[in-house]
Design a protein that fits this description.
This protein is an alpha+beta fold. The protein contains 15 helices and 20 strands. The longest helix is centred in the C-terminal third of the chain and has 23 residues.
Length: about 500
Amino acid sequence: MVDWFILAVISLVSAGLAVQWLLPRRRHRGDNFGLSSPTSLFDAVFLFDDQRLISHSDIALEGFEEVRSWHDLRRLLQRDFPTFPETPDCIRQEGNLIIPAIDCTVERDVMCEWIDGIVRVQLRENSICPATINREANDPIRLAMERAPYPVWLLDEQDTFRWCNAAYISLVRKVRGQDTDLTAPLFPGSEEDARLGGKTRVSISSDGSEIKLWFDLTRVHHPEGHLCYAVDINAIVDAETAQRKFVQTMTKTFAQLSIGLAIFDRNRQLALFNPALIDLTTLPPDFLSCRPSLSSFFDRLRDQHMMPEPKNYRSWRSQMNDLLEAAEDGNYQETWSLPSGSVYSVSGRPHPDGAVAFLFEDITAEITLTRRFRSEMDLMQSVLDKLADAVAVFGDDGTLAFTNYAYQNLWGDSGDSGFDADSVLDVTRSWQELCTASPVFGEIREFVGMRDNRAEWSAELRMRNGASLECTICPMQNGATIIRFATEDKTVLQPKLHQISA
């Protein structure tokens, strides 16, 4: 009788435990437990014998009529609980297992227990984030990754999603919407293991939007597969884009210049050049496009005879060092006379961030014109010096422009002009000192300063030494005036002995 009573009590206790396993708790309205099915499933319990479903709570049947095996349940839970085991064998080995939701911001998990050969699976709500109650609950590194400000996620060896942090979830929902599958890849996977540990720049875009979000993606080895990090670099990409647009704008501007431009960065590599540089230096475009160093650039110029030939290579190197130092100070300015006969003006200027710019300008035409002008001036001076009469030419501004030997001998002028040219007032006063008083000097001053109604006229001057001078004043083009002094006594115009000895 006692045995029968004890057996009945044990049966009632066992039945009570079974009922307790399957007893559903209250559920929240509108709560789908984060699963794909729109049907609510809250605090549901499943019992499995190996992989066969043997019992379940009543609420578990809502929308899950097709669950007949472990595989069926795993298929339903895999989206939100990707670490749910493929078979119950690991639960038998561990004794109990808590599977956190992929969304670490959701306070829900799946608790699996091994009880006398039966596997009990309960979908439950927790007051503590599941990431803190699993096997790595006390792992500070895992906690740090959960709260990291940038996306972090874990993939297994088959690149199947296993886990992600809150920043990743926030990014996925921002790009794909709130109701999205977190296990669907957001970033492109690495194709080569050789890239593990290195940064890869990738971009993603929102559905229906062309705006790209840029990240530096890093994949590292992990015991469970690959741990991935994504660092937001949109600010860097925007800055690079702005810089690239600026360089393109500057390049288009420089492309119109006839002056060759070569800008070397802080590492002394060619960073920017314009088409005029190719035309002036005859350097190949492919050579310039390879961003040669500053020394290689000038070595190539030297090899192609596009700069003055140095006496020896050592002095050439020393000259290049001096050139660079002068360019960094903004003081490099030279005129290169090339073996071809061309003449270049080369200047170096410092640029921000340690860069140096060199400007190459072909001034052959200007130099040729200047030389031709000087040659014509020398010819005109030679002609004036051959004249027997003393000649003085005043410019339109009233300053003395030219004189000849006869003039210098007559008035004792050395012919050397300083920085300030003599005015007609100064010159006529020096004439007055050697001549008797005459109103002609004042009339000459007035005539030189006139612009209209000018006609040639003559007057006679007498020097203090008794010589008589015939002074002829002639207007010239552009307001210039030529004054000629003639005398019958040619000895007056002969060079002085002390001048010859000088």
